[in-house]
């Protein structure tokens, strides 16, 4: 391949990888009631299965930068796709005498590990290979990530209805992951040198206030995003919406996320400061989720639209901050590891708090109050992280390259 052909192929592969990074979350929640009824999954296990994947993202995210330095980012990303395929296949397996719960737990944990690596490496690869297309490529791969959640939310229940098997409905999502791994394998095996910035070099992120502001912005985003993936459909069904319509509403909301995630990074890359879009996206997401929980059912499609546009923009902006606030690909990857390690680690408490508040109060009303507050939290740190500064400098950015 010529360099131009290689970059084009890499760009397509990164987008295809993104199309598989959220199916594990929304596919399970779309048929949660059916899995509980058929497999006899206890309440504690439901809490674990909705919380553990996000916790895995936080636990394993810091491993991605050193692995990329050692083996090359493309090869680590390929390995992540292989592990994701195996995890998706293992998740619906039933062991004789043990039932489905062990495989659900093991497969979900494997998927969380694989997705953690992919989440961290994608921004670094975009920063390294597409420095003049940050807005466009950020929008495309984050839109792909959102689309993966939309596809799983919208098609898992119909797959269950068509096959009569929740195992087949969940296991089907291993097919696209396997296809992407096969397509990506030749390019990844001959990948470039590892991402720049060796261990011990570059800004000390743990002492950098901008790095922490971006990280806390990510915490708020993750708490809302993964709670929506895990709980929106069950919340709607508890409010009296039938399973098919709840799946359509969740899918509709997530599809609108695609519009927000496609436009927001390009807009952010053209602005000197991203504080205003960060704040608007955070408040739209928090209010939209709260209204989906307690707002009149007559306006549920409007609330879902508000949530979708806000959440798509918020997710894309949070991920884009790792590239806009750094000078080089290595620092971008390290910041991505830090913000996703803390972001998803603390963000996993969102799904746990939903379960605990529901159990303690008997309804989801308290959850609406919680996420209105989380939206305000994300807005504060979105305003701070959107200021015109670089990690490691503390000074206003110098526009050294034109970003399209």
From TrEMBL:
SUPFAM superfamilies: MFS general substrate transporter (SSF103473). The chain crosses the membrane at residues 43-64, 76-95, 101-122, 134-160, 166-189, 210-232, 244-264, 276-297, 303-324, 336-357, 363-384. It holds the Pfam family MFS_1. Keywords: Membrane, Transmembrane, Transmembrane helix. InterPro entries: MFS (IPR011701), MFS_Cyanate_Porter (IPR052524), MFS_trans_sf (IPR036259). Gene3D superfamilies: MFS general substrate transporter like domains. This is MFS transporter. It comes from Sinomonas terrae.
